[in-house]
Amino acid sequence: MGGTRGMLIVFEGLDRSGKSTQCEKLVQTLRNEGEKVEHMQFPNRTTPIGQMINEYLTGESQQEDHVIHLLFSANRWESAQAIENHIRAGTTVVIDRYSYSGCVYSAAKQNKAMDLEWCRQPEEGLPRPDLCLFLDLSSEEAAKRGGFGTERYEKQDLQARVRELYTEMRQHEDEREDIVVVNAGQSIEEVQCEVLKVVKEARRQLDTQGLELRHMR
Ligand code: NYM
Ligand code: MG
What we know:
This protein is α/β, with parallel strands linked by helices. The protein contains nine helices and five strands. It has a single domain (8-209), classed as Rossmann fold (3-Layer(aba) Sandwich). It has a five-stranded parallel sheet with strand order 2-3-1-4-5, sandwiched between helices. The model has no long low-confidence stretch (mean pLDDT 96). Bound molecules: 3'-deoxy-3'-aminothymidine monophosphate and magnesium ion. 3'-deoxy-3'-aminothymidine monophosphate is lined by residues 15, 42-43, 57, 72, 96-97, 101-102, 105, 153.
């Protein structure tokens, strides 16, 4: 995989859909091929904002719905420059969750005016992924995988709404272009194989079109 700039690749999906496993496998595969790869995840719980998010998710603290939404977004903004720098320096960045999670989990709360459109606003201007791999699994199947954890949002009814909202979000013109759905109900190896195929195809397109890194709009 050649090319002048790195790619921005994002994994999305419900809790328990296998994102972290697939992220690690892709990072390893690309590194083995000699590519420079940076592995990130959101929320990044290591920063002060990330610690506030962590406390909210574990139930140690409460946050108003709009406030926590904006904190999740701010947590991406505090890494935005670093992501751009990596990409421009030829390093591919693979991220476990990004703006799409930011939109669908907040919108799933059904706090009236906080619809997908409202939730998307603070994301505008962030580096736009070249590819978003959506690991698709029903909330029932996700629940069967050893059950959800104890963090906030890890409830089947909310996860079911989250999955519907991921579908709805694919109607936005940029998201329609960026998101590729992968059936996460297959074996780890099968998903891995499909993911790699999609990534290679995206790389080929990028190399032929010579696209600059774009931004969410
Ligand atoms: N989450 C994640 C959000 O609600 N908004 C966001 O912007 C992001 C990045 O955090 N249930 C939610 C989705 C997850 C939870 O993420 C923790 P993870 O990847 O399960 O540790
Ligand atoms: Mg989780």
